[in-house]
Design a protein that fits this description.
- The longest helix has 23 residues.
- The chain is an alpha+beta fold and about 400 residues long.
- Helix 1 links the parallel strand 2 and strand 3.
- The strands form three sheets. Strands 1, 2, 3, 9, 10, 11, 12, 18 and 19 form a nine-stranded mixed beta sheet that branches.
- Helix 1 packs parallel to helix 5, helix 3 crosses helix 8 and helix 8 runs antiparallel to helix 10.
- About 45% of the residues are buried.
- It is globular, with a radius of gyration of 22 Å.
- The chain folds into two domains: about 200 residues, FAD/NAD(P)-binding domain, CATH 3.50.50.60; about 120 residues, 2-Layer Sandwich (D-Amino Acid Oxidase, Chain A, domain 2), CATH 3.30.9.10.
- The two termini are about 30 Å apart.
- Bound molecules: flavin-adenine dinucleotide.
- Flavin-adenine dinucleotide binds next to helix 1, strand 3, strand 10 and helix 8.
């Protein structure tokens, strides 16, 4: 399929005009945009519909750590120009606790791989630009209200009223609260795990304070430090699951970070204006299977993973690439084997990422109360940290899983 397919005719549907396309994609996050770009490059006609405005999706700050597989997929498919120019390689993390600090140079451990730090909103902006350049059609301000997986049809609402769109295939890339996963039949398994932990996710207009991603383990709760760009740093603070982000003033945030990051021992943080504070509940969700009839779920629509191991956007990119290849096989060569196996191929990788993210949650968090059970948990956590500090095998395990999918 070297040339974009001709758009099929437009016919009248029950709710007015029904537009037809080859692959209809719901959601313009990393999943939908990588998929759309790869399909457009392969000559497959696509249409992306997105509820938010272009400005909203291009300013939504979330992920920042792209694993080597994501960076390779983006670079190989001509989607990595911004990432290669403005992103930077990162291969060092540090753990701080009551017994001091140790660093893991994960670029030299495991498979010797690194992350590329590039803010998700910048990646999304690049992907939108490139998708349009490749001739893809992207409609913002379109809210999908109903989904039929059997006919790959959606109903939507936009500023002009309502309408209907149909594809040969439908890709559900509309995140964890979108409509496509709800359209999966009752028979699918919907795994759900609330890890009972919440983070206050903070963005500060300040350069990073340390060279490494830093995980601070403290009896008051976890605190994390991650670079995003030369001007912006992300911090995390473990908070009570029913906490209110607005109750955290700038001063309170910096004071908690100082305590938990032990700045009196390790040096001060570079402060700046706090531009975002939001509560993130650490939860896992996996839909099994992630395909039904002519619909395929990708990214957060298929599985939600806690940000503790920075895997969500990486899973989205990995699944989008697999699905793009499978769709091209089916459309080009009438070979449906990879498409039929899409769910079976993705789910083991999703579960391995979930398993590592859970391992990270248990390493970083513990009970803050003073009970015998809490003391026991704290002692186990310290033992695991000691092992990570001292055991080369443990460090290699960490490095391999930290960057890999
Ligand atoms: C604080 C935080 C930090 C994170 N850090 C990392 C990290 O470092 N590394 C990493 O890999 N991951 C990280 N993640 C996870 C990552 O951001 C997500 O996994 C990623 O955004 C998933 O991409 P997606 O395209 O599947 O979904 P989304 O990015 O959620 O995109 C879905 C799109 O669908 C649209 N949509 C929803 N409903 C509808 C509808 N009814 N009709 C039309 N459109 C709709 C939405 O508006 C949205 O634009 C982090 C997440 C958070 C919250």
């Amino acid at each position: 399929m070297n040339q974009p397919q001709q758009r099929a005719e437009i016919e009248k549907g029950p709710e007015g005009v029904t537009d037809h396309t080859t692959v209809l994609i719901v959601g313009a996050g990393p999943a939908g945009l990588v998929l759309g770009n790869l399909l457009q490059a392969a000559g497959v006609e696509t249409l992306v519909v997105e509820r938010a405005s272009r400005e909203q999706v291009q300013t939504r700050a979330r992920a920042g750590f792209l694993g080597p597989h994501s960076a390779k997929v983006l670079a190989e498919h001509g989607l990595g120009t911004g990432m290669l120019h403005k992103g930077h390689s990162h291969g060092l993390c540090a753990f701080r606790g009551a017994n001091g600090e140790f660093e893991l140079d994960y670029a030299r451990l495991g498979q010797g791989e690194t992350h590329t730090v590039y803010p998700q909103q910048d990646l999304v902006s690049d992907l939108i630009e490139e998708y349009i350049t490749r001739g893809g059609e992207l409609r913002f301000g379109v809210t999908v209200t109903d989904v039929d997986a059997r006919t790959a049809t959606i109903r939507y609402r936009d500023a002009n009223g309502s309408g209907q769109l149909t594809g040969q295939f439908l890709a559900g890339c509309d995140g964890s609260r979108g409509m496509t996963r709800h359209a999966m039949p009752d028979a699918v398994t919907r795994h759900h795990q609330d890890h009972g932990v919440a983070w206050l996710a903070v963005l500060a207009e300040a350069p990073q304070s340390m060279a490494a991603v830093t995980y601070a383990i403290h009896d008051d709760g976890f605190a994390g430090h991650m670079a995003r760009s030369p001007e912006v740093t992300r911090y995390y603070l473990q908070v009570s699951p029913d906490d209110d982000a607005e109750a955290w003033t700038d001063e309170r945030i910096w004071a908690a970070l100082d305590t938990r990051m032990r700045t009196d021992e390790f040096g001060p943080l570079r402060r700046g204006r706090i531009t975002e504070r939001r509560i993130v509940h650490l939860r896992s969700e996996v839909v099994d299977p992630i395909q039904h009839e002519r619909m395929f779920l990708v990214g957060d629509a298929a599985s939600v993973i806690s940000p503790s191991a920075a895997k969500g956007a990486n899973l989205a990119i990995m699944e989008a690439e697999l699905l793009a290849r499978a769709l091209v096989d089916a459309l080009d060569r009438d070979d449906h084997s990879a498409l039929d196996a899409y769910s079976r191929t993705c789910l083991p990788r999703i579960w391995r990422a979930q398993e590592f993210s859970r391992w990270m949650i248990e390493l970083l968090h513990g009970p803050v109360e003073a009970t015998a059970e809490a003391d026991f948990q704290r002692a186990l956590r310290h033992a695991r940290l000691d092992s990570l500090r001292e055991s080369h095998a443990h460090q290699n395990f960490f490095a391999e899983h930290y960057v890999g999918i």
